[in-house]
Design the sequence.
């Protein structure tokens, strides 16, 4: 059916159209000046030293694993409550994902206290995922990382411009990765970016992004170099200038868009705060957040009840989603499960995600909240 209120609404206008057309007309459509401009803009925006545009966040996460030196057989601690790409990236590097539980239903980010129980002699890194654009407990995580000499990779796909104690997410660990997939805060269709303050990590991931080649074709076309060597087994994880040009326009819209999303979030919380059957994760978060999605949890719910609720909303024209089916329940990961993950399972069974985008109207939010309240009585 056609939803009256979709989960997400792209904020494209003539600016993205013109940017893409300009690149096409320039006749340099692969990785070139627009990718460099996007990287510079992103570094400035996040106050990070280096940014590396990539074909997706999945590619960026793979580069991040290699960049911090993950080797086959190493163990990497990951949340199970994330998009599966976070975990797949560990496997691309030949390493073993060790699933860690979340803090709770009101804070579904990796539990710093549980991380400690997952550490073994083989542990090399921790991947954190800042769920919905709200920060993990980075003080405790960085302290553990220091104590056990572990690298920290931030999957910051949900949190461009989100802050933790005034610092931008993605710049606190060794490396951060962001996605520009269509439904993210910054949309280019496909695309992603890696950020780091570590020059060596930047140089290594830059090499691996483009076949392990010592120069890029844009540099050769510009006459900066005439040949190249291949010094490592790399990939083609480059972004192209058409996507980068769209990304540059999207960055200009990011701050006003997340301000608008914060208003939507406040409106939702005002209307749902006292609904006894619901838990609203991060309800009282008081730092800047990208408000990427708006999750709610059915208190004392079941997966059946959650499905009924989602169906009820769907019948009333409201599209919802789930974030996420936990990775440890997927067929390919069932043999990797070492610990019980009760909070992850409970959250995954009872969470549903409401529409969230800057142009979501007040009336629509009121309608969504009223429909939820009715639904809770009827189902
Ligand atoms: C979207 C997303 C990814 C994957 O990003 P792509 O750019 O689609 O590869 C990884 N992790 C999280 C948490 C995401 O939301």
Sequence:
């Amino acid at each position: 059916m056609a939803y009256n209120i979709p989960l997400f609404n792209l904020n494209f206008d003539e600016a993205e159209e013109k940017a893409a057309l300009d690149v096409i007309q320039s006749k340099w459509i692969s990785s070139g000046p627009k990718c460099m401009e996007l990287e510079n803009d992103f570094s400035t925006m996040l106050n990070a030293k280096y940014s590396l545009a990539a074909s997706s966040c999945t590619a960026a996460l793979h580069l991040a694993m290699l960049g911090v030196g993950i080797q086959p057989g190493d163990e990497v601690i990951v949340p199970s409550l994330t998009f599966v790409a976070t975990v797949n990236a560990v496997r691309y590097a030949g390493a073993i994902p060790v699933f860690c539980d979340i803090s709770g239903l009101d804070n579904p980010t990796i539990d710093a206290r549980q991380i400690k129980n997952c550490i073994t002699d083989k542990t090399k890194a921790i991947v954190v995922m800042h769920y919905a654009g709200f920060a993990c407990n980075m003080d405790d995580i960085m302290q553990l990382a220091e104590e056990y000499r572990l690298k920290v990779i931030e999957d910051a796909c949900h949190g461009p411009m989100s802050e933790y104690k005034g610092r931008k997410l993605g710049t606190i660990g060794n490396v951060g990765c962001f996605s520009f997939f269509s439904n993210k805060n910054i949309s280019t269709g496909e695309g992603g970016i890696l950020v780091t303050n570590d020059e060596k990590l930047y140089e290594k991931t830059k090499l691996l992004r483009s076949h392990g080649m010592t120069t890029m074709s844009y540099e050769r076309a510009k006459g900066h170099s005439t040949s190249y060597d291949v010094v490592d087994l790399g990939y083609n994880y480059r972004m192209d200038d058409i996507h980068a040009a769209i990304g540059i326009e999207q960055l200009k819209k990011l701050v006003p868009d997340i301000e608008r999303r914060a208003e939507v979030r406040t409106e939702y919380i005002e209307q749902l705060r006292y609904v006894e059957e619901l838990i609203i994760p991060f309800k009282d978060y008081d730092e800047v957040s990208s408000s990427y999605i708006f999750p709610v949890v059915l208190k004392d719910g079941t997966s059946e009840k959650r499905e009924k609720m989602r169906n009820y909303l769907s019948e009333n024209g409201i599209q919802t989603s789930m974030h996420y089916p936990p990775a440890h329940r997927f067929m390919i990961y069932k043999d990797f499960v070492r610990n019980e993950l009760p909070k992850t399972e409970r959250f995954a069974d009872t969470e549903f995600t409401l529409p969230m985008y800057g142009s979501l109207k007040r009336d629509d939010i009121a309608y969504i909240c009223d429909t939820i309240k009715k639904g809770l009585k009827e189902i």
